Amino acid sequence: MSDGPGEEVLWSAVDQATRAPSVHNTQPWRWRWEPGAVWLYADWGRQLPVADPRGWDVLMSCGAALHHLRVALAAAGWATEVRRLPDPTDGSLLAAVRTHPHQPTEEERRTASTIPERRSDRRRYDLWQVPTALIREMEERAAEQGVTVRPVTDPATRYRLVSAMREAAERQESDEAYLSELAAWSGRLSHDVEGVPAANTLAPGAGDPDVPTRRFPGGELPRSPRQLNDPDAGTLLVLGSAREDRMSWLRAGEALSAVLLCAAEHGLVSCPLSQALEVPITRDALRERVLDAETYPHIVVRVGCPLLNAPPLAETPRRPLAEIVERAAPVR
């Protein structure tokens, strides 16, 4: 077996990988590692049967964790070679990652340093527009993962996107099974290791009426000091690709991670918005009325400038590594 990262490096890299966003903070992943290699598995027991019957959210979440892992290893001096979906007979094995020595760049270190600080910020954003140059950089980061980013800046297109998001929310909120599933993962205490903490979700009436976000029960974040009639300056990005299958969903998760970390590097706040993709009729509307017939939408991301003096968000807890990491048996 070839030499590779030691236990401390691998442990740290997987720990950073688990900081990736996941739907309802379900953390639907498991890991197995040995010196020089890491395997990523989907934990299908954590799939949301109502919101995510296709398993799309699971694969997106795992893709984001895979990208976080690659970023963390690169910053620690280990380049990665990834075989995605390496075993067609194993629906849980999503990626096999091999490592080799690498001289990290300053940009790689800077990107990795944002992993512990990134949060999904569901609050209102400031009135400053995101600079075009930063949007282009996010597009480039996503393109490196094989995914396109469509910034929705045209008012008519933004209206169509927001309308689809609002319709998806209304449809889901009229579904008792969905509400029950959402409640099971919401309103968690700060010491809970899964689910969405109440301290990180909006209190009733505290959201931004311009951009509908998922309404988690039990939210505690207060209303922004901004007036409700102030325009929202957050930019909506739609990530998509030419296919809609397991590989494209996994790669879209990697692109999502790349976009979120790029935003964090530049002091921006962000939040993935998946509701419009969870409802078939609004998912189709995004493809037909926001993108084009050649591109399948995978996720919407809201990016913007943080409000001045906005208090920092609490860290969202994660499951202990001992519960999700398996060491491969040594070769004798």
From TrEMBL:
What Gene3D superfamilies does UniProt report for this protein, alphabetically?
Answer: NADH Oxidase
Task: Using the UniProt annotation, give all residue ranges assigned to the region (Disordered).
Answer: 199-232
| NCBIfam families in the record | Rv3131_FMN_oxido
The record's annotation in InterPro entries points to:
Nitroreductase-like (IPR000415), Nitroreductase/BluB (IPR050627)
Question: What is the name attached to this protein's record?
Answer: Nitroreductase family protein
Could you read off the lineage of the organism from its UniProt record? Bacteria, Bacillati, Actinomycetota, Actinomycetes, Pseudonocardiales
Q: Which domain of life is it from?
A: Bacteria
What organism is recorded for this protein? Answer: Actinoalloteichus caeruleus DSM 43889
